[in-house]
Amino acid sequence: MMIVVLNKDTINISREQDVVVFRNRVKESATKIRMGLVNQTKLITAASELVRNMLRYANGGIVTIEVVSRGRDNGIRLVFADEGPGIKDIPLAMKDGYSTGKSLGLGLPGTKRLVSEFDIKSVVGTGTTVTIIKWNNG
Amino acid sequence: MKQDIAKLLQKKKKQLLENWMTNQLADSALREDLMSNEELRGQSEEFVESLLNTINGSNIAEPSSSDFDPVLEILAGISMSRARQGFSPRETGYYIFSLKDALLQILQDEIKDPVQLFESSMQVTRLVDSFSTVTFETFIKGREDVILRQTDEIAEISTPVIRVWDGIVALPIIGTLDSARTQVVMENLLEQIVQTGSSIAILDISGVPAVDSLVAQHLIKTVSATRLMGAECIISGIRPEIAQTVVHLGIDLSNIVTKASLASALRYAFSMLQLEVKKKTKVITQ
């Protein structure tokens, strides 16, 4: 079924302080489409996970927040685009416990488990784009 | 014969200051509550003095000339102090814009040739506009300083360590845990453990909106540090939605004692210290 974009918003992320602002914006959108508390928390956690990655490895980037609808389902789509170093081995990065930094290595795989749809594209030297969708009841 | 505007203005210094003061005092946005008229006059006088000492026939046409640095410095100081005192941008802007009016009034009175009047007005306008830009830049910077200071204050006040019982300290965390905050939290907690000689610390995360892997990592670090000090650390305030998120993320908190509420954490702490809280039974005397 086709996904229709109902509302679009972009935020620039360049400092750690932007994370809180961004998270509140995501929460606002999620509340607007009456997403349940558990799904909201999952979405916000996933978003904050990805935005931290963006800050840490690419010094920031641009996030697009979209309210999307597919038939009777409403959801939030977030697109994280950065111009960082890119990810060399995506399957490895998606493995639990793998991290090039000193983190727990749960960011990417954990995020995938938290959201309904997850897509990652990366070109080494050019940047990474992660797209996630969380459906209202998914 | 082309008149030297700089010289002209220097001659008319007194009138210029009077004009400027009249303009400022006539504005409805004048904030007598924030600054007295005398103070305003002193500030304006200092500025006019330094401006007129600096300008000459050649640099008046180049607002970006380094000759103006001392003038800009004074202006920046005024603007910065206004931002801190709580002036609005409009009020601060009017301070410098009303100077332009005063300058133009003098030019209009003194220069009769329309072409020259226009030319010198343009020069003065350009000069004052470049001053205005500086004023706004520093004004915003002043405001940002205020915000930064408040951020620091919030970071400092938001981590109180509470002694709930003999040997038990609690630390309610409110807001997001980032690296800088964790550092403050950890320091405060460890210090209080030593000071109070506590053996149990309760970290309450009821006020943390989301626990992502970074927050979890910080929590785990804090717990390990507390254990190194010989105290046990309990994490309380884990809401249902947080619990589900943590599980999906795949964070392993199983070797940390976690509780849903501060009350149950306290109960656990009591049992560890072999304390018993009992309801007092009334002794009925006959």
Could you give a quick summary of the protein structure above?
By secondary structure, chain A is an alpha+beta fold. Chain A is built from four helices and five strands. The radius of gyration of chain A is 14 Å and the shape is globular.
Explain this structure:
The complex is a heterodimer of chains A (138) and B (286). Chain A has 138 residues and is α+β, with helices and mostly antiparallel strands. Chain A has a single domain, classed as Histidine kinase-like ATPase, C-terminal domain (Heat Shock Protein 90). Chain A is built from four helices and five strands, in the order E-H-H-E-E-H-H-E-E. A five-stranded antiparallel sheet of chain A has the order 1-2-3-5-4, covered by helices on one side. In chain A, helix 1 (17-32) runs antiparallel to helix 2 and helix 2 runs antiparallel to helix 4. With 286 residues, chain B is an alpha/beta fold. Chain B has two domains: 5-152, Globin-like (Orthogonal Bundle), CATH 1.10.490; 162-272, STAS domain (Transcription Regulator spoIIAA). Helices cover 62% and strands 9% of the residues of chain B. Chain B has ten helices and five strands, in the order H-H-H-H-H-H-E-E-H-E-H-E-H-E-H. In chain B, strands 1-2-3-4-5 form a five-stranded mixed sheet, with helices on both faces. In chain B, helix 8 (213-228) links the parallel strand 3 (200-207) and strand 4. In chain B, helix 2 (13-26) packs across helix 3 (37-54), helix 3 runs antiparallel to helix 4 (69-85) and helix 5 (89-110) packs antiparallel against helix 6 (114-157). Chain B is elongated. Classes of the chains: A alpha+beta (138), B alpha/beta (286). Chain A binds chain B through residues 16-17, 19-20, 23, 37-38, 40-42, 44-45, 48-49, 52, 96, 103-104, 106-107, 109-111, 113-114, and chain B through 151, 176, 178, 209-214, 216-217, 240-242, 244-245, 248-251.
